[in-house]
Amino acid sequence: MNTGMEHVISNAGAVEISAVPILPFQEFRDHVAWSVQGGLGLSALFACPQDGAFRLFAVLRDSAQGVLRVASSLAGSSYAALTPDCPAAHLFEREMAEEWGLHPDGHPWLKPVRFPGGEPACGDVPYYRMEGDEVHEVAVGPVHAGVIEPGHFRFQCHGEKVFHLEISLGYQHRGVEKLLVGGPDKRSIHYAETLAGDTSIGHATAFCQSLESLSRREAPPRAQAIRGIALELERIANHIGDLGALAGDVGYLPTMSWCGRIRGDVLNMTALICGSRFGRGMVRPGGAGFDVDAKITGELEERLAAMLRDARDACGLLWKTPSVLARFEGTGAVSNRDARSMGMVGPAARACGIEEDARHDLPAGIFRFAHIPVSSSRTGDVFARAYVRWLEVQRSAAFISEQLRSLPEGDITAPLPPLPPDSITVNCVEGWRGEICHAALTDSNGRLRAYKIVDPSFHNWFGLALAMRGGEISDFPLCNKSFNLSYCGHDL
Amino acid sequence: MSGIVIRRIRQGYRTMKLPEFGRPGAATRPGRAGGRRAQGCLRRYSAALGAAVLPERFRGLPGIDFSRCRSPCGECAARCPTGAIVPRTAAGIGAAGEPPAPFTLDLGKCLFCGECAAACPEGAIRFSGDWRLASRSRGSLILDGRTFRHADSLEKKIRRLLGRSLRLRQVSAGGCNACEADCNVLSTVGWDIGRFGIEFVASPRHADGILVTGPVTRNMRAALEKTYAAVPTPKIVIASGACAISGGPYSGSEHVFDGVDGILHVDLFVPGCPPHPLTILDGLLRLLGRIR
Questions:
Q1: Is A283 helix (H, G, I), strand (E, B) or coil?
Q2: Chain A touched by B274 (CB under 8 Å)
Q3: Domains of chain A with bracketed CATH
């Protein structure tokens, strides 16, 4: 539907690019900024070369109406930055400046995002610095102490107190978005599955839905249910693993040890369906790569019940142990206002009282037929983030068990026709970290002309920096784990 | 407190038993386990592996029946996303000193997606449940009809220096966090890699070597080289996962170096996307001479 200002589509909807109105830039800027100030989310903001200039696309998430609003405009080599009136755009504008040389005039803090060109070298930026007696700087990374991905963190501290944390990423940049252009081809699905390996199902679902919605096709109902089960297994595995790691970070070993093992049990449930603990091969364009028979559903139900019993024991201890609660409560709090203005998503946002969840607000696939209640909390601290995750574990388990009992009959794949030319689609999937947004545009030959990926981490990394303000540097591992953001999902 | 104890009892002892010998039905059976001490160590912890760990649909070492291949149909090579399958020219097949196979399959590039097995009209390629994939040399990863050569142990002199421990610093150089996660999992109580004296350590200065994941992005090369330089000699390098071995799906991207091989000398290659924890553990134990 065209409102004159924007084209309104449902999640996983597609439309011809020509149907998206091109607004004069000032109108576009005001419209996006006002919409976001009025409570809409900025799911994506990206540029695409067109006729010697750049076409800017903004995807506005209207959770109340359950639709996505796509607005667009044209810009030359520079434009008036949106960030001063719409802070959630800050990283998108830095990204466009780096990728296309599109300069946002008036951006308050323009610096590289992923250092794709080699110059300046990755991490080589003038970091924000405080001056003063006894003010000191702590630099960590890119290689960290644990077995995790690389990134650079720089703290401005006075004693233990952190005044500011600056996060510089880009070390994982592999060029995924560019590699997808010209596709889809036989490698495309593997880029989707590995662009953030712990969210293989989430990103693969968003990618496959993109191709399906462009071709105006849907995966068969049975495949949609299997994808939903896999998505929720992925969520449970990661949430349980992180709850265990949080327990470890406050020195509470029982939960840490048990959750480490229970997470493996969940990964093995995914492997029971598709042979891979990370769900590789599970989601394929047009459907699912693997079917489940009665033996597998029976086994899954049994294991799910056993897993939930073990998880109740392991995680339940967290909420009754005073030493754990003392470390969780009040640590790394992000206010509702900050979370909104920075455009945070997922459990981290829901922990601040932002009751948004793409499964509920923008349902696609199986979530149109089976609903999962939104889990939220108020305090925005480590406790709230941990507790929201625990609520989600239980609700996802209930969803899986319901789906296993009522799997639709039928095929698991339906072949896709070639993609139509000059079309655009937007797909949002609620991954375990939050909203995954993929926007795909085709060229006149029906090949992918641009593929924009927004991992939830992209919205949330600045939230981690905010969570550390005024905290102690020793809180960092705990705060970091409570968000557990993706480096490669951000770096692409 | 009593709550913790009751729950502890309910959770039980859950460290996994590990397979000592090949699984029944595995294509090849490894010989006797290493020295007397190693054997004792393994025997204490070993038994047949429960089916729960490796599910039926697990895709391990591809078993290829080259006699069924109707070359030059090329379906498998056409479907392979990473070019792991290379058809050979008819003239080379069967020539003196040449492998007899009509095509080769490079485990270092393989994502174990199973596309080739699905594409082959003759059913010549089947992914087996054999998790033992690690190898000491890049060339051994190329399946060409000759028996797959599992990883040999390190040289005796280095094994003596290491004693009964192996400490590794993990470096993610563009890894997607799947390889990293399944390395990490080895330290959980389920796998308890510490029982073999193997540990992932925080500082390269405390390490005997590095385990690299990811295709080595341009942006991580300097940090990778610095980390390697900080490890005291002699040091080993392990490339874990298709990306670290060959670039995996990212091979050819202008932002990556197609794996660690051209940058550092690699002592152990662990194929997979990502490798199963058991595959990594098997490789490490072979490297230490605990399994042969």
A1: strand
A2: yes
A3: 7-105 (3.30.460.80), 176-456 (1.10.645.10)
